[in-house]
Predict the structure.
Amino acid sequence: MLIGVKIKMIREAFDLTQEQLGKELHLTRQTISSWENGKSYPGITDILCISNKYNVSLDELMKEDIELIGHFEAIDHSLNKQKILYAIAYVANVLFLAVYILANYMHVLPIYKVTALIMGMIALFVLFSTVQQPVNLYTNKWALIAIIIAFMYFVSMAIFRGVTSNNIDEQTGIYVSSGLRVLLLTSSVYFVPQLPFRK
């Protein structure tokens, strides 16, 4: 029996409308209707909530529902893919940062810098789109300190480059490109305190 049918039976056994059940679970009537019609599935937290609230065992709710099990397996597979993608992008991002920091102290060929820049932009896009639990800068002091130090470091390097040039147009171009670079590099540092395979 499908979980939507079981939820409907529980709802009717407790003489609740879809709207009343939705209110008790902090969901909309449409969500309950969608479950009951088999258009969508409840999440694990919703299933646990129903189990606790209406004294129905998880085994009873989920037993023999092949579609629900398949749904959770698909979610699990998708999360594993995201974790792998995040880990690859994380390593690429660290390499990008390393190349740009080393470039301040030693000669790095322009081809490597351009490659690192492209790699860094792609890595940042992937990191922002796959991160599950972003670091909260208000509660994680180490992440906040890393961001502030990185920002000050990259800004000071940008100012140093701009000051060494005598041409006004050249200085303007350097400041604009440096500003974008500082933004990109600081955004990259935001991910450094986050571990690739965190739980």
Q: What stands out?
A: The longest helix spans residues 66-102.
